[in-house]
Design a protein that fits this description.
Number of strands: 0
Shape: elongated
Order of helices and strands: HHHH
Helix content: over 70%
Length: about 110
């Protein structure tokens, strides 16, 4: 449930019209990667199979970039944003998977 909520929140963020998007702050690519690290960790904790999660989030990232490029929301799709998104997914899959497995074991043992 948390995973789905985070996906919906991220979708709202990615499809917010350009003039309403806050400017400045950290590097845009770091923000993209961070969002997808959080999404991936939430998916792992929700016990979504790793391959399905990774492929699904990579596709989701691609779709959001295409939508930004095609919808009249004054946003630009960028393959570098997609690459940052996928980097976040891979980072979380590699580093977060052992933590997610341990959390699932603890929850199951209760």
């Amino acid at each position: 449930m948390v995973f789905l909520l985070l996906v919906l929140v991220s979708l709202a963020m990615f499809l917010t019209p350009g003039p309403d998007v806050p400017q400045g702050g950290p590097n845009d690519k770091v923000v993209h990667a961070g969002i997808f690290v959080v999404l991936t960790l939430a998916g792992l904790l929700a016990a979504v199979p790793r391959v399905r999660l990774g492929v699904g989030l990579a596709a989701y990232a691609a779709v959001t970039e295409v939508l930004q490029a095609t919808l009249p929301i004054q946003r630009d799709g960028d393959w570098r944003d997609w690459l940052a998104d996928v980097t976040g997914v891979l980072l979380a899959l590699l580093l977060g998977w052992p933590m997610a497995r341990a959390a699932q074991r603890r929850a199951r043992d209760r």
